Amino acid sequence: MAIPSVPVPAGLETEFFALGAGALTYLPEILKRHFPHCRPWIIADQNTWKAAGEKSHALLTAAGLDPYEPYIFPAEPRLHPEYSYCEMLAQLMPADAVPVAAGSGVINDLTKCASGLKNIRYCCVPTACSVDGYTASGSALVVNGSKKTVKCPAPKALCADTDILATAPADMLASGFADLLTKIPAGVDWIIADYAGAEAIRQDVWELIQGHIYEWTADQNDMLNIFNGLAATGYSMQMYGESRPASGAEHLFSHVWEMEGLTLNGADVSHGFKVGVGLLASTLLMEFVLSRTAAEIKAMMRPGLSIAERESEIDQLLKLGCYGPEPKKTALNKHLTGDKLLAQREKLLANWDDLRSRMQKRLIPYQEMYRKLAAANCPVTPAAIGLTPEQFRHGIRTAQLIRNRYTVLDLLYELGVLDNAIESLDVMIR
Questions:
Q1: Within 13 Å, how many C-alpha atoms sit on residue 234's CB side?
Q2: Among residues 249, 283, 270, which one has the least CA distance to residue 378?
C-alpha cells in the first residue's frame, strides 16, 4: 500500500511522516508497519477526539488492531502542559500499547513525555497546523512552576491528514504561522551566541531551517508549506538535541508570560500568539544593536552589578513567586563581575561591525514582520494578548534570567544597555 508521505532526514527518532488529504485512512497500516504487535491507545481531549480521535479509533477497530479504551481529557478547563499529567498518563499506559496522540501542541507534548517516561515510542496524529513541537524531541512542560523542555523521544511516526488540519479554527493556522516566523529572529539569536562564543552554529542544522525559512513564511495561507516548515524545525531540534535551532528570546518572553498565568478575557493565549508578539520585541531589540556603533554602545554602558546587587535585582524581578527555583540560580550562575565582565565587554565590541553585518543579512525589519503577522490575523501588540505595558516590560527583563541560552538579551545585559534597548519597545505599547 503506497502511503502519501514526505521525506524524513536520515538518522532521526522520527522514521515516517504521512502527510496529505485522507492520510488518516492509512493510520492502521502505519501502526502495523512501525509498531508491530502493539495495541493502539488514543490520547485526546474532547475537542480533538471529535476532530480526529473518534475516526482514528473506528479505523483501528475495523482493521482488527483492538485499540484500548481511549483516554480523553475534558475540553474545559483548557488543558495545560503540566508534568504531573505526563506522570499520570505513564502510570495508566499499558506496556504493550502504542500511544496515539490525537491533538495539537499540549496533547502531543503530554503524550510524548508520558511515552518517554514509560520507554515506549508513540505516534502523532496532528489536528492543527499550530506548532513546531510535533516532530521535536522534548516536550515543553511546566515542572514545579517553571517552564522547561523535558527531554523525551520524538514520535516514531506521524499521520497528518490535511483534510483534518483544514478544519481547525483559523487562529490555529495563524498561531502556527507566527511560531514558524519566530525562526528568523531565533536564527539571529544563534548568530549572536556564535559571535559571543557561547554556542557555535552547527551548519547542517542551521541549513535545515534557515535555508528555507523565507520560503516557508512567504504565504500565511499556505497550510501545507507552513506545516512542512514546522515539521522541519522539529527535525532540526532532533538533530541538535535541544531547541536552540528553533527558539530564541521570543520563546523566553512567552515562557515568562505563561508562568505568570497570562490570559485574555479569561482564556489562555496560544503559544504562537505569545511568541508572535515576542518576535516583534526581539526584532526591535536587534534593531537597537544594528542602529548603534561600538562607540555609541560604549557611551551608554552602565557599570556592572556586584553579585549582591544582582541578587537583589533578581529577587525584585521574581517577586511574583510563580517561576520556580531555577531562574535565580541560572541568572546568578551566568552573571559576570569585575575583570570577567570587562573582558567580555571588550570581546563583544571588538568586532561589532562584523556582528551587525551578520545580523543584518538575516533579520527581517520590524515593520515587515509587523505586516506579515497582521496579514495573518495574528496579534501585533502586547495589549492584544492581554499584557499591560508593565507586564510586557517586566517579561522582557525577566526572560534574561530563565535560561542559559545566550540571546540578544544576554548581549545587551552584559554590555549594560538592556534598559536603553527596552525603551525602544515603547513603539509596541503606544
A1: 32
A2: 270
